[in-house]
Amino acid sequence: MSLALPSDAARAALAPTGLLRAAINLSNFLLVTDTAPNGDPVGVSPDMAAALAAQLGVELVLTTYPNPGDVADAAPTGNWDIGNIGAEAKRAEVIDFSPPYCEIEATYLLPADSPHTTFADLDQPGIRIAVKERAAYCLRLEQDLQAATLIQVPSHDAAIETFLAEECDALAGLRPRMNTDLASVPGGRILDGHFATVQQAIGAPKGRDEAGRNYLHDFVESAKSSGLVDELIAKHGQQANLATAPPV
User: Fold this and answer.
1) Could you give phi then psi for residue 108, rounded to 5 degrees?
2) Are both 8-102+198-244 and 104-196 of the same fold?
3) Phi/psi at 91 (nearest 5 deg)?
4) Domain-by-domain residue ranges, the chain?
5) What is the torsional sign of CA 47, 52, 56, 59?
6) Which fold has domain 104-196?
7) Ranges in the chain, pLDDT < 50
């Protein structure tokens, strides 16, 4: 990856303790695909953090969180220096995000007897959509839906259970996970297209020096243009599920 070395100001902004403390969201099974013998998460997200630490010339410390909402909640506490989660407007109130480095399609799984064929069909009064609360795609639906009701539950597994038990009109989630969920919904189908692309990015807590934010931007753009992101996606076998985001 061809990128200028960071200035002292950028390094101090991104790793003020001399370590790069990276918050990793464990619930994204596409970006965290395994666990190392020492317990550290393995996948595209931890590898992106490792590449940034190497570029900064500092040691990496991974801090794991069960959900992206927990990462966002911890942004003002000073417990992490970078957080690898989906960039969304609500989270941007406390986090300054880099451009996205990869994208994941979010769509709906419909029951067998569903008459709906478009995303607009599912934004009508009386429509109920099961979804994992505080996921990036849930935040997007909260922002975009005008009439449908979101049934928000703590996990995607709970969302599937709610979708089936309460006979909801749709289940919202990431397309790769929907391909697996389809086996649990006899006759079900996944809606073509997407209502959002979840854009995975690297964020820094608001209030850090502009030099750090600028360097984070340049790092991510360089990681995309140099092929690093493509290499990491292939390394972890996620070519069918993740796409490198376009340049900004």
Assistant:
1) -115, 145
2) yes
3) -70, -30
4) 8-102+198-244, 104-196
5) negative
6) D-Maltodextrin-Binding Protein; domain 2 (3.40.190)
7) none
Per-residue model confidence (pLDDT) at position 1: 64
Q: 133 CB contacts (<8 Å, ≥6 apart)?
A: 69, 152, 153, 154
Identity at 233, one-letter amino acid code: I
| Cβ-count burial 227-237 (b if 16+ within 10 Å, e if not) | ebbbebbeebe
Indicate the Cα dihedral angle 61, 204, 48, 29, nearest 10°: 90
Residue with tokens 């911890």: 74
Long-range CB contacts (< 8 A, 24+ apart) of 41-46? 42/236, 43/236, 44/102, 44/229, 44/232, 44/233, 44/235, 44/236, 44/238, 44/242, 45/84, 45/200, 46/22, 46/84
CA distances (Å), origin 16, targets 12, 65, 79: 5, 21, 11
> Quick one: CATH architecture of 8-102+198-244?
3-Layer(aba) Sandwich (3.40)
d(CA 114, CA 130): 15
- 6 token code pair: 């960071």
What's the predicted TM-score (pTM) here? 0.90
Q: Please report the pLDDT score of residue 2 as a whole number.
A: 74
